[in-house]
Amino acid sequence: TMQNCIVSFEGRGGGTFAHELLAVEYAGWISPAFRLKVNQTFIDYRAGRLQPAIPKSLPEALRLAADLAEQKQRLEQKMLMDAPKVEFAERVATASGVLIGNYAKVLGLGQNYLFTWLRDNGILIATGERRNVPKQEYISRGYFTLKETVIDTSNGSRISFTTRITGKGQQWLMKRLLDAGVLVPVAATR
């Protein structure tokens, strides 16, 4: 059953392990190529184009079992190593958001450049009192939040808007900036 999705064992050889189905789903999230391979294999199997390999001898069965155990161990080790990255990504995705200027700094872009790019690409309103306010569709998708503040001046009251980009919006915008060639992907180093 799926009741014990994640289990922990103490002692020698212990660790925290996810249910096999979760591990496969996680691996698919990490590697789209892996997900495509899994999906194609499933489609081939359902169509009868793929039959499970049944070992013909005891040594073949033992080798297959050993190979599967090694593969499972590698995936579990990768999952443990990637756990901090996943935790960080989940925290970013659920965060209430940061100011666009601060996000620009994180990306290594100038604040003015990012605001101009967002306006030029129709994400922020370009003119008027609501200049630099996200268009409603992007707020509705959860990419931005908007805070309204009433400011009292000698000429009366006016409303000021503060735009924040959510964690979900940060991930979405980074992909847009990469696709547009504004950001250049950097190879990960270990």
UniProtKB/TrEMBL annotation:
What organism does the record attribute this protein to?
Escherichia coli
Question: Hydrolase: is it a keyword of this entry?
Answer: no
Asked if the record carries the keyword DNA repair, the reply is no
- In terms of superkingdom, the source organism counts as Bacteria
Record domain KilA-N: where: 1-45
Q: What is this protein called?
A: DNA-binding protein
Gene Ontology molecular function:
DNA binding
Keywords assigned by UniProt?
DNA-binding
